[in-house]
Amino acid sequence: MISSRGLSKTFRGPGGGTVTAVADLTMDVEAGSLTAFLGPNGAGKSTSLRMLTTLLRPTAGTATVCGHDVTTEPGAVRSAIGYIGQKNGAGQYYRVRDELVSQGAFYGLGRAERRRRADELIDALDLGGVVDRPTMNLSGGQRRRVDIALGLVPAPRLLFLDEPSTGLDPQSRSQLWDHLLGLRERLGITLFLTTHYLEEADQFAERVMVVDGGRIIADDTAARLKSDLAGDRLTVTVVDPDHPTVVDALRAAAQGRDATVEHGSAPDTDVAAVRYSVTLDRGDRALPALLAHLAGRGQQVLAAEVRRPSLDDVFLGLTGRSLREEPTEPTGPDQPAPTTVPGVTP
Ligand SMILES: Nc1ncnc2c1ncn2[C@@H]1O[C@H](COP(=O)(O)OP(=O)(O)OP(=O)(O)O)[C@@H](O)[C@H]1O
């Protein structure tokens, strides 16, 4: 459905230098899949999407989307896809139904067909209560649903979404996801989206591509990324420990992983206790044997915990930085200006 080889984009930077926004993007995305492009601000997510949707011309490399080359057949690509950009696409003053009907006219649908399509999407995205309201009077979540409906008017086989849920409250985000997953199940469309939100990539995407500095630094299912690149975090708090005994026991429990045992004072305890942590596979399985081993050596364990890894642990392991920060609005002169291209909802 999407295939890219060495796709790259450089921009002229503020001081006359160059900014590499995307470097060597090589990937194949299957029809019917749900892929999340996950990365921090400035990682190159939007630029990648904008090249794949023909809004930006690549500096190097090639890509085909729905079987058409993004550089030589942009019209064919656009007629096969939907694109929901970061900014709201609906006109401020138009009523929701009118927006959807005129979008249908834009795509050349006949009068009856555009009304039928608008009704179908109003129903699918639960917009029945707001059809006669101008989009500027809608909540953030409702506006985002209108955007998605607009992107679906031409019945695309593939829908690109650039941060569909950024800025929405948790309840609207969860509703939006219900709609997206419902649409996917009903229509069988391929979804390719960018997100900052670790939880939604983890929960909903079948495939997660972690992007940083314009490059894909990891690409797999969330479960495999977490087990291969992060592992479980096992922590034990030991009263008055024999340090070498505890460290050896934790290293043995980690079995082969590059096990660095960290230790530090245990907060919230009245006794002289030390907290030890190690990263390992299947901490839940290792814990009983570890506790028995420590008890056999006279070590009194006050508390034990196994924490499953998150995608943030994956990102931290790969880059040394955390992704767990709220997205900020892009600012500054080097941010892309919103572009309107016929055939694609901006
Ligand atoms: N038109 C442009 N001119 C110059 N630099 C640009 C332009 N568009 C993007 N960039 C730069 O390219 C890099 C990647 O930007 P991009 O918007 O693709 O990142 P992103 O991962 O989508 O970030 P965000 O999550 O904030 O949207 C950034 O350093 C950005 O400043």
UniProtKB/TrEMBL annotation:
It is a peripheral membrane protein. Residues 2-238 form the ABC transporter domain. The keyword Cell cycle does not apply. It comes from the Bacteria. GO terms for molecular function: ATP binding; ATP hydrolysis activity. Pfam families: ABC_tran. It is found in: Cell membrane. GO terms for cellular component: plasma membrane. SUPFAM superfamilies: P-loop containing nucleoside triphosphate hydrolases (SSF52540). Residues 319-346 are annotated as: Disordered. Keywords: Antibiotic resistance, ATP-binding, Nucleotide-binding, Transport. One of its GO terms (biological process) is response to antibiotic. InterPro entries: AAA+_ATPase, ABC_transporter-like_ATP-bd, ABC_transporter-like_CS, ABC_transporter_ATP-binding, P-loop_NTPase. This is ABC transporter. The lineage of its organism: Bacteria, Bacillati, Actinomycetota, Actinomycetes, Micrococcales.
